[in-house]
Amino acid sequence: MQDWIKAGEIASEAREFGKKLIKVGKSHLEVTQEIEEKITSLGGGLAFPTQISINNVAAHYNAKIDSDFKFKEGDVCKLDLGAHFNGAIGDTAVTVDLGDNSKLVRASANALKAAIEIVKPGIEIREIGKVVYNEITSLGFSPIRNLGGHGMEKWQIHTSPSIPNFDSGDRSKLVKGQIIAIEPFASTGSGLVYEGKPSEIYQLQKVKNVRDSSARKILKFVDENYKTLPFAKRYLPFNKLQLTVGLSLLKRQGLLHEYNILPEKKDGSLVSQHEHTLIVGEQVTTE
Ligand code: CO
Questions:
Q1: Are 91 and 228 part of one and the same domain?
Q2: Does residue 275 belong to any structural domain of this protein?
Q3: How remote is the CA of residue 92 from the centroid of ligand 1, in Å?
Q4: Which of 113, 128, 186, 282 gives 108 a disulfide partner, CB atoms 3.0 to 4.6 angstroms apart?
Q5: Which of 42, 52, 59, 33 is nearest to 6 (CA)?
Q6: How far is the CA of 77 from the centre of ligand 1 (A)?
Q7: Residue 264 and residue 278: Cα distance in Å, rounded?
Q8: Are 115 and 219 within one domain?
Q9: What's the confidence (pLDDT) of residue 66?
């Protein structure tokens, strides 16, 4: 368990550091990179690319290397980051409000707090969803129903169970020592996200021999450095041509999966998110 506790401490410190950097006029890419440097300087690995998703985008917005995007007045910024220590993961998120959406931000924060209060060995998963749903709807917002928390194992960011943001009827029970992340999303919109544009966040599916030399080099680099954890295109030390050819080939062959950006179905909506990682029956590692 020590590795999970250490990963959680690093993730927590990086989150507190990162949320202070998100300010009107600051560069999205630079803030992202500063946070990732913080994680590595604390002795952690990057469990997945640091994401800062804005306004109607609920998740998976990762800075591109040539992005000149800056935070602006009114933005609702979800900072979701992950640190790992020997493969054990701390997954945590916070919302930074650059406008006047404090009630929306409070909705996901309250939901996370209320959910953590009831987590213990033997509790049914549906109970967590019920609490999240009640907290968010009581403030007049919609929980996002097709996003949720998840189990984790070493080097695996998403394993069973999935932890819904509503009462899904799942009667399976949490067990002592299980690692879970709880992540309520509150929305002013429909409560559903769709698969948007590609995010430049990838994950290794399997390793096998490939003929193309760019693809082969990328595969080797990913397997050695990230194993089965998600990584960003901007982490790869290859030239533009190698990346274009190699990545599209690996994607086509099913060796790499690329995640999509996840916007709210309703245009113009705003989404907030909070997340912690827990060891069931023991502690919140990312507090
Ligand atoms: Co998560």
A1: no
A2: yes
A3: 7
A4: 186
A5: 42
A6: 16
A7: 27
A8: no
A9: 85
Q: Is residue 286 part of a domain?
A: no
Residue 149 CA, ligand 1 centroid: distance in Å: 6
Q: Which residues are catalytic?
A: 80, 91, 150, 158, 183, 275
What pLDDT score was predicted for residue 111?
Answer: 98
Rounded distance from Cα 171 to ligand 1 centre (Å) = 21
In a domain, 284, yes or no: no
Mean pLDDT by runs of 10 across the 287 residues of the chain is 97 98 98 98 98 97 92 98 98 98 98 98 98 98 97 96 97 97 98 97 95 96 96 97 97 97 97 98 96
Verify that 42 and 166 share a domain, yes or no.
yes
Ligand 1 (ion): which residues have CB within 5 A? 91, 181
Domain carrying residue 234: 199-260
At 47 the pLDDT is 98
- CA 50 to ligand 1 centroid distance, Å: 11
Whether 287 maps to a domain, the answer reads no
Residues 90, 114, single domain; the answer is yes
Could you tell me the pTM of the whole model? 0.96
Say what the pLDDT of residue 201 is.
98
The alpha carbon dihedral of 189, 132, 14, 243 has a sign of negative
Same domain, 45 and 30: yes
Residue 48 alpha carbon to ligand 1 centre in Å: 10
25 and 70 housed in the same domain: yes
Residue 38 and residue 8 share a domain:
yes
